[in-house]
Structures are given as C-alpha cells and as structure tokens.
Design brief:
The complex is a heterodimer. By secondary structure, chain A is α+β, with helices and mostly antiparallel strands. Helix content of chain A is about 45%, strand content about 15%. Chain A has a four-stranded antiparallel sheet. By secondary structure, chain B is mainly alpha-helical. Chain B has one domain (about 60-135, about 140-395): Formate dehydrogenase/DMSO reductase domain (Formate dehydrogenase/DMSO reductase fold, Up-down Bundle). Chain B has helices at about 5, 10-20, 25-50, 65-80, 80-90, 100-125, 150-170, 170-180, 185-195, 200-235, 245-270, 280-310, 315-325, 330-350, 355-385, 400-420. The longest helix of chain B has about 35 residues, at about 200-235.
Chain lengths: ~170, ~450
C-alpha cells in the first residue's frame, strides 16, 4: 500500500525522512514530490545514478559502430580514390566524432527516461500524490502491517493530510 | 542587482510567465499574418525554382554558391545563440541565465531547422536530397564519407538532435504543470509532452543530471558544427579559403551573431510579453558585454586572416583580397567593419551609452554585418578564381531574395507559435531552493 503526506517546508519533510529511515524504511520505499527541485542531503535520500557511465558507453559504442560501418562500406563498395587509402581515419574523422557525440546524446536521453521512470507504462507506475504549489509531498510504500508505524512517524514530525493513495486509497 | 526570484513571489512569477499563453492580441495576430505571408511568398519562390529549375537563381559559372550558401552559414551561426550560450551559463552556474536560456535554446532549434534547409534548396533537384544519407545507391556505391557535404549532414543532424533534446528536457516540468491547468487540445498536448512527469525527487535528480551532461556534450558538438561548416570552405584549395584559422574564425563569428540574435529576441519578447521584471537591464548589460567581447575577438580574427593574406602577396589571393578591400566588394566590406566593430564598440564600450535600446541597435547592426561577412567569404573567392578568363560576377535574383527574406519571417513565425504554446521563460527554474548540506 502507499501512504502520502504533505509538508509545508523542506525542514519538516527532512525530519520525517530521517525518522522513517530510522524506523527501517529504505530509500526505495520513499519518494518526495514537489513542483520544484528539492535538494536533499545524500545521507537522507541518496539516488545513485549511472547516467554519466551510460553516456560514455553510448558514445564509445556509437563511435565503434560508425567506424565499422564506414570501414565495411568503403571496402565492400570501394570508390575510386586515385591511389589514396580506401579507408582513411583522417578523411572520415569528422563523421566518427559527430556520431560518437550522437551516441552520447541519445544514450543520455534514454538514461534520463529510464532513471526518472518516465519510460514505465502508466499501469506499472506507483501512484503519485497531487502536489499543490509550494507543498512537498512524501510517498511511502509499505506493507499494511507497518502502515500505522509510518503514519505515526509522519504525524509526529509535522506532516499534514496523511492519507492512503492508489488502489487501496 | 536583485533578480526576479528575490523580489517576486513564485506564485506571481508563474502567473506572469503563463499569461502570454492565453489568448492572442491583435498585434500578435497582425505580426503572425504578415510573417506567415512572407514565409508563404518564399515557399512560392522555392516552388517556382523547383518547377523551372535552379537556373532561375543567380548562381552560374563561376559563382556556384550564392545567397543559399550565405544563408546556410549565417543561420547555422545564429544557432550558436542558444544551446552554446545556455550550456556555458548552465555549466558555470551563472544565476542570471534563468530567464534567458529557453529563449536562447529555441533560437538554436529554429535556426538549425532553417539553416539545414538551404543545402536542400541549393541542390536544385530537392527531391533527391536523400542522396546525402549514407545508403547504397543504384550503382551499389555508398555516398562518399570523405565529402565535407556528408560531414555537414552528420554534424547538423547531431546538433539538431542534441539541441532539440536540450530544449525539451527543461520544458517537461513546465508542461506537466500546464497540463493540470489547461483544457481541450492544449491539455492533451501538454500531457503527451510531459511524459507522465509527477515531480518525484527521482525525476528531478535525473533531470538535473541529464541537463548537466547534455550541457557538456552540446558544447563540444556546437563548436564542432561550425568548425565543420568552416571546413567546407577551407578544405578547398581556393584563394582566401584555404586557411587553418577558418574553424575558430567561424566559431567566433557564430557565437558573435548568436548573442546578437538572442539580444534582439529578448528585447522583442520583453516588450511584447511584458516581461520587464524578468528580463531586466542586468541581463541585457551582461549579454551586451559578452557581445562587445565577441566583437573584439571577431576583429582580431578578421585582421589576422586578412593581414596574413596581404603580407604573403600571393597573386591569386591578392585578387580576392583587393576586390574586398578596395574593389567591387569594398562597400560591403567596410559596411561589415562598421556594423560588426564600430557600432558595438561605441554603443556598448562606452558605459553611459550601454542601455537595452543601444544593445538592441548594436545587435541588429551585428546581424547585418555578420550576414555581409558570410557573403564576403563566399562570393569574392568564387568570383575571382585562379584564371582571369574564369572571372565573373554574381547577382541574386528575386527568387533568392524572396527565399532569404522568407527565412527571417519563418524564424518569426516559429518563435511566435512557440511563445504561444510554451512559457518562453523556464518557470520552475525560478523557484529558489536550498543547496545540499553534504
């Protein structure tokens, strides 16, 4: 089941997160919703990311595929080069560079969609609370036997409008 | 100087920046009709060229590259306004960039779309444009990967893809908020574009990481794109083209004209959309100083390029050099120097004269000067070849002038439509938020 609670400022939301973590909830159980980016200390809610690594991998893959593609086509369908090498890094370097960067761009975008969960189908997404401007909402995924503990933790740290959301709500 | 975030409550910021999306004033409609008509006229001229053949344009031996290639280089240069400036400011965490970035990024995407059309218009038989795409043709040959034309295709394709994503990413939170409040087709459009954005911390983190990465990547691509455009010329062993500084010279020129275009657009939207509290004299002052710096850099490169040619005294280069400095093209050359150096230096260099109005005047002057610079790079070299017998002159026809005019109108139309659909200033970036504690 999913619980949601609203906070009017960042500090109370932070207190609630610390309290929930002390009660055994993990970062994967918790999600903070807001209409603006909220910086949270790593110790409270760390979201590891592999986006940079993915971008570099995408760039290298795309670059190698481009080299292979150009090499293959120039040797299999050779053009008259007037005695110059059939395949030349110098003359085709610009294409390798541009398509390497293209790989980095496309992979970054793909990884953004993946890490943000925007690629998931709607029915596979966890329910999201409606966020009013200026309000910070906290969603907790918990088994029903721990719902009371979570609710107590939220209310004691200053949450308003603690409610159940999703199908059970 | 206080920025809008410090003096205006966020609720008001949102109201102010969303207001231009609702309704359309009579002035907006008149501007849209006039600019659309000019764009349609340009399309008709292109249709006429497609029907009659490329002969209706003024390009003929020895000047095979005319207005279309001048426009191509000019618009690709303008495209450096947005993404490059936005990426530099984002990476350096310049706080004053917030109201400027989206306006700049939109210029990039539209200018690239317009610029990328010109090689196709220039082809004459535009319906064969797909010959530029690497695929085996009817003779089982692949297009030549060594050709700078194919370099252009990959460079512009990569830059357009990156710029579009770079414009789209920070739009997502804004369109998600708009989707909640809009009705009808707008709601459907915004919901589709928001991709199911909920504003979770995971999404915000992913967005910020992606924006930082994209800023770094796009910087490298932007520099390479205009260098590749420069190499279209410098790889040819033609007088005044075969120069090793052409790459950086073009990049500097592109950033110079890009900043000028951004200042003009900012000045117009500030007035038309009543964004005075957001686009303040502070923003114009910063960009004006950047424009002045680029003007000096442009002068340095122009002197370096011309002085080297003059000192070398190679007859084939001196023919082109002479035609620019004191011959047939001299009026254009000196107007270019006046527009690109004298006007910005006087209006922006003297602190008392540096206002929003003078920054706009200097920017318009730079745009005229930079278009002339592109013209002077392309036409004189082709007009004064190595053999005297092949010399000739170029005169544009009404078809080329119509298509050139239409591209400026098309830029206006695209911008007008964009500003009616999306907030021209990124709303969510105005919300102040605390720095991480560890």
């Amino acid at each position: 089941m999913f619980l949601a609670a609203d906070f009017l400022d960042r500090e109370t939301a932070l207190r609630a997160l610390v309290d929930l973590k002390a009660n055994g909830f993990t970062p994967t159980d918790l999600a903070v919703f807001s209409d603006e980016p909220i910086e949270l200390p790593r110790s409270v809610l760390h979201r590891p990311s592999h986006m940079s690594l993915a971008a570099v991998t995408g760039a290298i893959t795309s670059g190698l595929l481009t080299i292979g593609f150009v090499y293959f086509t120039q040797y299999n369908y050779p053009i008259v080069t007037g005695g110059m090498p059939t395949f030349s890094f110098w003359a085709t370097g610009v294409i390798f560079y541009e398509l390497t960067m293209f790989g980095a761009i496309v992979t970054t975008f793909y990884w953004f969609l993946r890490e943000s969960g925007l690629m998931r189908r709607r029915r596979h997404r966890a329910p999201a609370p409606v966020v009013e401007p200026g309000v910070i909402s906290l969603r907790i995924e918990c088994p029903s036997d721990r719902a009371d503990a979570a609710r107590h933790s939220l209310e004691s740290t200053g949450a308003v409008n603690v409610r159940t959301i999703g199908d059970a709500g | 100087m206080a920025t809008a975030t410090e003096v205006i409550p966020y609720g008001e910021v949102r109201r102010d920046l969303w207001r231009p999306l609702a309704g359309a004033s009579s002035r907006y409609l008149v501007a849209l009709v006039v600019l659309s008509s000019l764009t349609c006229w340009g399309l008709c001229a292109w249709g006429y060229q497609l029907h009659k053949g490329i002969g209706v344009a003024g390009i003929r031996r020895p000047v095979f590259w005319g207005f279309y290639l001048v426009d191509f280089v000019f618009w690709i240069g303008i495209s450096h306004a947005g993404t490059l400036i936005s990426a530099i400011l984002r990476l350096t965490e310049a706080d004053w960039r917030k109201p400027v970035t989206r306006a700049a990024e939109a210029i990039t995407v539209f200018a690239l779309m317009i610029g990328a059309m010109f090689p196709i218009i220039h082809l004459g038989r535009a319906w064969l444009f797909f010959w530029l795409v690497p695929y085996p043709n009817s003779r089982l040959l692949w297009p030549n990967f060594r050709s700078p034309l194919l370099w252009d295709v990959t460079a512009i394709g990569t830059y357009l893809t990156g710029s579009t994503i770079y414009l789209f990413l920070p739009l997502i939170p804004d369109v998600a908020q708009l989707a909640v409040r809009a009705n009808g087709w707008r709601r459907r459009l915004y919901r589709m574009l928001s991709l199911g954005w909920t504003g979770s911390d995971q999404q915000w983190h992913a967005l910020e990481r992606a924006m930082k990465l994209m800023a770094g990547i796009i910087l490298a691509v932007a520099v390479s794109v205009h260098t590749v455009v420069a190499w279209d010329f410098s790889m040819a062993i033609a007088p005044m083209w075969h120069s090793s500084i052409f790459g950086p010279y073009f990049v500097v020129g592109a950033i110079f004209s890009g900043i000028a275009a951004l200042l003009v657009v900012m000045s117009v939207i500030r007035k038309a959309m009543h964004l005075e509290p957001y686009l303040t004299p502070h923003h114009f002052n910063n960009l004006a100083k950047l424009l002045l710096l680029m003007s000096l850099l442009w002068l340095y490169f122009t002197v370096a390029e011309n002085l080297t040619a003059w000192y070398g005294n190679e007859p084939k280069e001196m023919n082109v050099f002479g035609s620019r400095i004191r011959g047939h093209f001299a009026p254009y050359f000196w107007i270019m120097v006046f527009c690109n150096f004298i006007v910005p230096f006087v209006l922006l260099g003297i602190r008392r004269l540096r206002t929003i109005r003078t920054a706009t005047i200097a920017s318009v002057s730079v745009l005229i000067g930079m278009w002339l610079e592109r013209f002077l790079i392309i036409i004189p070299t082709l007009s004064f070849g190595r053999l005297y017998a092949t010399w000739g002159h170029y005169a544009p026809t009404w078809v080329e002038i119509s298509i050139t005019t239409a591209t400026f109108a098309a830029m206006g139309v695209l911008y007008l439509l964009f500003s009616k659909l999306f907030p021209i200033v990124s709303v969510w970036e105005f919300e102040p938020h605390a720095e991480p504690e560890d």
